[in-house]
Amino acid sequence: MVTGSKGLKFSAVVGAVALASVTLGVVGAAAQPGEATSTTRTASYLHFPKVVVWTTSPSANPALAPGDYAQDTVIQLTNTSNERVDVNCYYVNANRHCGGPPGSGPVCRTDADCLPGVQCLPGWQSADFQVDLAPQQPVGWTASTGLSRLPCFDAGCPGGIPDQQFGLVPAVAEQPFIGELRCFAVENDVPIDADVLKGEATIVESGPFGSADQVLSASYNAIGFQATSDGGGGDALCLGGTPAGATCAANYTPCAANLSVQHFFDGATVGDSVVSTELTLSPCSTELETGALLAPSNRVVALILVYNEFEQRFSTGTVVACSENTRLVDIDTPEGPAGDDFSLFSVGTQGTLGGQTRIKGTGGGDLFGPGLVAVAHQYFAPDSDSDPTSSAAYQVNGNFAAEPIADALYPPAGP
Amino acid sequence: MITFAGRRTASVVTLSVALACLAATASAQSFTVEEPSSILIFPKVVNEDGDNPRDTCIQITNNSNMMAHAYCFYTDGQSLNGVRRWSVTDFRISLTRQQTTTWCASEGRPVDPSDDSTGLDPGAVPPVIPGFTGSLVCIEVDSPFGGGPSGANDFTGRADVAGADYNAIGIPAIDNPNADNILDLDGVEYAQCPSAYHLNFAVNGPAGAVALGPMAGVGLGEGVATVSNSMTVVPCNFDFGNLIPARVSIGFDPIVDETEVVGSEGISDVVCWDNLQLEGTGFNLLTSFGTAQANGTDPATGSPAGFVAVANVLRVGASGGMDLATTNLHAVSDSLANGQIILP
Prior knowledge:
The complex is a heterodimer. Chain A is mainly beta. Chain A has helices spanning 6-23, 347-350; strands at 45-53, 70-79, 85-93, 96-98, 107-108, 120-122, 125-133, 138-142, 177-187, 190-191, 197-207, 214-221, 223-225, 227-230, 236-239, 248-252, 258-264, 269-270, 273-283, 286-287, 300-307, 313-320, 324-327, 354-363, 372-381, 390-395, 397-399, 407-410. In chain A, strands 1, 3, 7, 9, 10 and 13 form a six-stranded antiparallel beta sheet that branches. A five-stranded mixed beta sheet of chain A has the order 14-16-15-28-20, with no helix packed on it. Mean pLDDT of chain A is 84; it is low at 1-34 and 291-295. Residues 1-28 of chain B have low confidence and may be disordered. Chain B folds into two domains: 2-10 and 25-193, no CATH class; 196-337, no CATH class. In chain B, the strands form seven sheets. In chain B, strands 1, 3, 6, 8, 9 and 12 form a six-stranded antiparallel beta sheet that branches. In chain B, strands 19-18-21-15-24 form a five-stranded antiparallel beta sheet. Chain B is mainly beta. At the A-B interface, strand 2, strand 8, strand 11, strand 12 and strand 17 of A face strand 2, strand 7, strand 10, strand 11 and strand 15 of B.
């Protein structure tokens, strides 16, 4: 996470980075495929780490300004089985706001976005909804508008079962929006073993606002957690094991023990384009308390090793408290262009086009685990001073240890 | 990776049980786009010039703390007078521990410490010819100068096709591969290939773009005007030894829209490599989104056949700006088929 107090947080992780140098470099015996999260297998629980919205809506605060790119995210969710399935979903709003919680001021990224003397403060909120998916049914929506009713709400599905289909998808709570979406199969609100869900997100951008001659699109698959066994009547979705103090409602495959991001260094000229990359990190463990302002219930320290093509290794770290989307060069420098040239993720610092970044989450504490998920989002521009002309998202690789890490997701207690 | 180390003193009965368990486990194993593997398949590599030039940049990473070697094969699948070239170019790379390497297909990567491709050169990577449309397969081997297949499962990769990225499809080794030049993707030596995938899509044309907002009046400024879909397909058999192109037939059944209306789309025969435009009548849905199951069959026998694929979605803006997005596909559970790679 990059905040005004990042320096303090960063110092807290420096000591641990040395440990990371050892632990990240040693990959344990890999779990067999099928025993880990996957973006190419249907699953019971889907995690979309990056959902962004900033459109021409009059409610956007701040509104789009000339030069900005409008953004929206198309979500596609499909039931691949021949049985109906209910799905509980949660948008997590990871915005920061000038002066405090949502509604208190405009959305911001740093204090510089606010009036003098006003701080840009985190304030996470979740919003839940349920969709009832018919057999083999795909559903799609834009995060900016949602769906006021499901496709077969009125009179059942003309091509399938005649039952009326219940559920709706709300629009995201505010704009700009940056956050995530988590969905899992349920029966009577209890998580179930139903590895039949698949999902994709496409981030579409249009701009620069005022001229709008570019369209950017970047797609990624939702990260899927397959069910492994029923729980013991607890309240958590346990991923890979049971964190200390947790009780499980259902058990799923684990998060990766460490993540491996293959990327171009920022500013690298690849082909005819200059590349920059955003990385979204999100804790596997979290608490989804609907409608309540969430204190960050779980902070994960991300220990980071960066390898370039000279076999040189560098280390840094950051703290992830909620879905955190940041440019690579802002992980170890202040947000914004200042200091970017000296970042470990800058092509000028590394001297090679490409690199590998390995990320290991630690901490988490009681009830929570240290797992992280991620998605990378690249932008391509003709030169470093030009607007992007293309974008692409891609899945982050992972290594799964023989002894999986344990995480837990806590849905709200219920109505 | 599963081995039998430490079990040598076990009784014959125990070994039999272990073998049975191994077979059961292995049969469920398939490809991965997240975890390191011994075989990487990049199904879409293009180097197109002309009015809309497109290049492909490849990144391969050694995830281990030991040096790792790969034997790689470009296969040119471009069509000349309706016939696929099936022209194969091989090369070898070696990566030090945790090393990643990068090159663009149009230029390759010569061994030249003084060139712009800084970093440790992995070996001489040849450029592909202009007009190349095909695939890249890299197989982990135990020596930089030859040697047999290695089952160390060290490599991950990704490709950037003119601003559209996908992860290389990894085929992990399961048991230690034997030293012959035939790699069996049979769930015992290496993982099997999927023979069916789930494909989600926004429908072609303006209908798929409606969901993107601008026509609702609150959206992306001028926004997206049209959508078009395609799927790049490569059969899961590669005979690099005898240069015999593989074939797979692809059909889409069922195709389902958001109101559960079910359709299908006929068979396309893929020889070596193809980019299938998903524009048949079966894809003309009445809703903005749909899902299809892509099924691979052997053209000769009609039995399920393995293939690898990525989905491509081209979005064109109202002002003519366009961008392509490429994604890996979801495999249909338990739809696996054997494949084979024959090395020279």
